[in-house]
Design goal:
Distance between the termini: 84 Å
Number of strands: 20
Order of helices and strands: EEEHEEEEHEHEHHEEHEHEHEHEEEEEEH
CATH superfamily of the largest domain: Class I glutamine amidotransferase (GATase) domain
Helix content: 10-25%
CATH architecture of the largest domain: 3-Layer(aba) Sandwich
Pfam families: CPSase_sm_chain (PF00988), GATase (PF00117)
Subunit structure: Composed of two chains; the small (or glutamine) chain promotes the hydrolysis of glutamine to ammonia, which is used by the large (or ammonia) chain to synthesize carbamoyl phosphate. Tetramer of heterodimers (alpha,beta)4.
CATH class of the largest domain: Alpha Beta
Strand content: 25-35%
CATH topology of the largest domain: Rossmann fold
Largest sheet: 11 strands, mixed
InterPro entries: Anth_synth/Amidotransfase (IPR050472), CarbamoylP_synth_ssu (IPR006274), CarbamoylP_synth_ssu_N (IPR002474), CarbP_synth_ssu_N_sf (IPR036480), Class_I_gatase-like (IPR029062), CPSase_GATase1 (IPR035686), GATASE (IPR017926)
Catalytic activity: hydrogencarbonate + L-glutamine + 2 ATP + H2O = carbamoyl phosphate + L-glutamate + 2 ADP + phosphate + 2 H(+); L-glutamine + H2O = L-glutamate + NH4(+)
EC number: 6.3.5.5
Amino acid sequence: MTTLTSDSAVLVLEDGTRFIGRAYGTRGTTLGEVVFATGMSGYQETLTDPSYAGQIVLQTAPHIGNTGMNSEDDESSKIWVAGYIVRDPARRVSNWRAEESLDDALVRDGIVGISGIDTRAVTRRIRDTGAMRGGIFSGPDAALDAEEQLRRVTDAPQMAGQNLSATVSVTKARLLPATAERIGNLAVIDLGVKQSTLDNLTALGFDVHVLPQSATFAEIQATSPVGVFYSNGPGDPSASDKQVAVLREVLDAKLPYFGICFGNQLFGRALGLGTYKLQFGHRGLNQPVLDKATGRVEITAHNHGFAVEAPLEGVFDSPHGYGPVEVSHVGLNDQVVEGLRAHGIPAFSVQYHPEAAAGPHDAHYLFTRFRDLVIATQAQGSMQEGNK
């Protein structure tokens, strides 16, 4: 029997599987859904992505922490993951941009982690059985009775049915001015938005009004928007009825709409489509996606455990009356819907993250596509006004 010390840690999955390793980050207990991310780099962006709230993230790359942490690459104000699993954490930082070590950052933000386990075995377990609830118990908690540890894991809530956007969203509106020739005001519904997304939008000429996830359509209208953007975020899209209802008002008003990740799932629901939970989700920097309009394959960054249900081929009618719709992008690993485009209203979305440097810039054109859609909609409105 392995003797557990104050530096020990145990990862417990809800099926009873246990992995014993070393404590990493803060000592204590953390619970969440265990998922794996396949990026070989970019761990800082992963850790500070609000979409990972409620999830214990396992890095499939074996060596993590070499480049340390710096304030410039943060995607938000803190680390959001519920817990962190790595195989071999760096013993020293080796990068001129580093301001602190990854270990110090985990301790600072109170993140319980584990290192020194066979992360490949955990990944294979999740791929075979699907994402599971789990717990990391470190320090004195590593010595808790195994049955008690498992009980705490199985008592934790499932990810399905959780609405987590309120835990990551801003509580007050804020304005980020355009950094290029101004187009107009853009209302961004913050469901867990990343800083790099906001930077891309301001660089296109939008004055970005970041609004709380609880924003009403009246509050969106109060910004005099030329378009509306729904961001990425954590949780189950089926538990976000209020945001879907507001989005339907946006679509009814024919405001140009762009959604990414969670915003894609909510767009699907607003159109009248269903969503479902993936077996183990897509998380990482190397996901191939087909743009059906161009036939081009993009290497993209993903972080989602849910997806939209829709026919992959042909044009179909929106069940909620928004006219013809088509699946614009398809994941080539498992044929999951990765984008939607409406034909009768100025609206589209993608499931992946165009702000991330996966390809490295394969998907960046989507921001330009949205800007062009806004400008075309403005021109059409001016023409109609002139014909009156």
